[in-house]
Amino acid sequence: MNINSLKRHFRESFKSLGRNGWMTFASVSSVTVTLLLVGVFFVIMMNLNNIAKNVENDVEIRVHIDVAATQADIDKIGTELKDISKIDKVTFSSKEQELNKLKDSLGKSFSLFEQDNPLRNVYEVKTKTPKDVTSVAKKISKLEFVDSVQYGKEYVEKLFDFVDIARNIGLALTIGLLFTAMFLISNTIKITIVARRKEIEIMRLVGATNSFIRWPFFLEGLWLGMLGAVIPIILIATTYYNMYEYMTPRIGNKFVELLSFSPFIYQVSSVLILIGAVIGVWGSMMSVRKFLKI
Prior knowledge:
alpha+beta
């Protein structure tokens, strides 16, 4: 295709948007509503996924050392822990440090235990992936001079199952919503193209090739999709910014933490523009090919 033909296609696609004002409005409105739903759902799912990831990453194993263990035994346990392949980080916390943590979190009333500290020396263990916690904990429990291993067994496995189910449901709903968007937009653009059947027939009668006819519709679908993404991007960006500014100082919890406005909202905007462009082009091409038999 030469540059003059390409310029002509661009020019015709823009003219067509103006000539078919109501159809253009209907198509853009359809894209806008659909992408707004997709964008809102995408923002919610990404933040839920971030919260789930924060909770997963906070899961750790606390290895309580037997009171009969000597310093050499404690050092030996530390070495054995570091040799386990699935362990990422090992941190030692003495019983004095454990008591200080209790005093910081629960009050100075625990100072009474300074003379006779009942707490144990502890190794805090982080695994490379959260789901390795259960298998690693079983290995650690078999080490000599390990009194107990705590990692929230009663809720960790349920947490991982819940996160997996939530992610799978979210993925399925997202895919379903995108296919619904494609179907709705394709049908809207199809009406636009069917209304211009005579225009296409005249182009064919004067010898226009199939590709020559398709290009303006290809570009028109592209503009419709991208125009339809503008309002959802503005609404979602504005709403998310206000929500982020309002909620962030009030949450005060590292687990329930919203994704930072930047660069997250720019990523969402890019995704919406891309989706709009793809489904706009796809809707135009499918409608031209299947329903006008070009």
